[in-house]
Fold:
Amino acid sequence: MYKYDQIDQKIVNERVDQYQGQLDRYLSKELSDEEFRPLRLQNGLYIQRHAPMLRVAIPYGLLSSKQLNKLADISDKYDRGYGHFSTRQNIQFNWPKLEETPSILRELAEVEMHAIQTSGNCIRNITTDQFSGVTKDEIIDPRHIAEIIRQWSTFHPEFALLPRKFKIAVTGSKKDRALVQCHDIGLEFFINENKRMAIKVWVGGGLGRTPIIGSVIKNELEWEHILTYCEAILRVYNLYGRRDNMYKARIKILVKSLGIDAFKELVENEWKYIKDGPNTINTEELNRIGEFFSEPNYKKNIKNNLCDYTDEKAFGQWLSKCTNAHKKKGYRAVTFSLKETGKAPGDASSSQMRAVADLSNEYSFGEIRVSHEQNLILADVQEDKLHDLWSKAKEHHLVTPNIGLLTDIICCPGGDFCSLANAKSIPIAQSIQDLFNDMDYLHDIGELNLNISGCMNACGHHHVGHIGILGVDKNGGEWYQVTLGGNQGNFASIGKVIGPSFTAEEMPLIIKKIIEVYLVNRHEEEIFIDCVSRIGLEPFKDYIYQKSEAVE
Amino acid sequence: MTSQLIKNKQIVEDDWLIVDLAKVEEIIRMQAGKVVAFKLSGEDYPTKEQVSKTIFSDTGKILLPLKVFILHQDRLKKRVEKKEIGIWLSTHEEIDKYIELIGDLNDFPLIAVNVEKFADGRIFSIGNQLRNKYNFENELRAIGDILRDQIFFLKRSGFNSYLVKKGRNALDAIKGLDDFSEPYQGAIDIVEPAWKRNKR
Structure:
């Protein structure tokens, strides 16, 4: 993984000093609340319901065991012994003290970590595929590009105070697991006709209040120009994005109101002044960064002993749901579910963090990844060690075999923690997990993404959940709106609302009814989302709102 | 305490007089239940009436609102030659639209960009455009709601003087110029990115 040199370390250290100064000026009343707000936000610090919330960056979701141990230590020392992994592959601490935040940042800097640009109206953490580097269909390991963009975007002087937040995602493989079509900028790598690496550039996608699938602004961009082209897009956005209304301030609104062609013309016009300029990257720099992500020492001729365990059903279920194919023969990528029933989705205790760090040292070259589905991944595990790993991880409640299934719920912190939320989301996730606790039934239902957001800011990505749940405020009460048919990946789509919203108590039953309609209507091997696409929303609506007894 | 001017990492005397626009009654607008704090790029402000009512002195170094300069430019030719005229624009004014009307930017010894609100980052892109797209080479000044924490970014976006907001500590703001010693990306002040400047 990427290792800091003196330049990286200096920037992070200087940032801690700068932030300490900003906080001191705020505490001595030299800075007003309004003036301190953008400064603290750019450092991941929110003022929440109970305490400040600190969001720490995990660039493109990659952690070393040393870093994960540090996060565990911080959660014990400054928080309540746990952390929440977010859909932007970051980690959030819910209970730090404002005065202690500089000390937390200083400790993070010791392990090459920080909270830079994890919030605020700036370029946020670049996200990629959690299986980068280990999938078979990769054109480039997207982490190389993500690291290059990370450096370029860190304290970018021109884009420090944008109209609104700005999110960039990169996918290096044909199968998109990074949601590039739902980002402010999405970068999709491919090999062009001349057998050169090129990028398809998406712009103006996004979830939130106005969900929109992005538009293609450039079908084929030579990879060398990635930074200057992003710069041109951001310059146009910075100048013309709406600052008068925060709900209309994202780039998607600008792209939509101008139309993609007019927007593109503005971008191309800015680009011509900077194309081939100093920020153009070259093969040397790409290779220099690429070196950091070179392959570990994979073993050859690993004996496949998985047949020894065929009668262990729990292990079998875990193997099929929580491990993924690997480009190297004899290896698999393992996902530890942070979605155990009864736990807040995405939360990990300090002891779980330490356990995962230890397991990564023993089984996966000391590296861990965070997925946007809020799970933790060991990407390089030998097949003959899978059973050992499973047995050990089981003691730490990390082997719930529900990855990709109904109870692998993506969920924001919601009204229990977040002051923006309209409604609670964690208790909804828990009540649904409780209802679908039977593993056999869950596996029979099969692949299904259920995403929950506590408000239209959509941190829980509800629009692209096969089933999406959105917390809404109705006359001061907490209600839940249900969408069906959302999807992520290459065939991304935004879910459609099925009808009037429900109370928290009704929610598990509503999900149960949705599943019943699916089970009755599905063709053999047809997964939920395909069934919804085929039969449409009507049968679900009819059954849920009792217009008919659709399920016999 | 009046506003203090920072130039070359020092507090210096300001020998330019900023000409304010004529006051007119401003309409308070609301969006999404909040008072609109930012003017939209391209918004028709200042109005024609306001521009024509703006008055300024016939002698000395004056910094004129962009549109006021355009209105009076014929009779200001001599003073431009004498380097007595600078212009200032606001962050919502599109330089692209006016560039044709104002001739050679380098005739002005000083251009200032006014930011009404700290959080308005358009000032950075305008600085970049003035330097990079329109090749302005003389003094570029940030005025308005200028606080310590913008100054590092302003410097990197092509500004070289800063009129710190009234009542704020300019000596402290000077320190902001050195918040970071080795920035990653190429910008206006340091053109090459870190990986080209150093052996990494």
Summary: Helices of chain B lie at 48-53, 66-81, 95-102, 122-133, 148-156, 170-176, 194-197. Chain B has a mean pLDDT of 94.
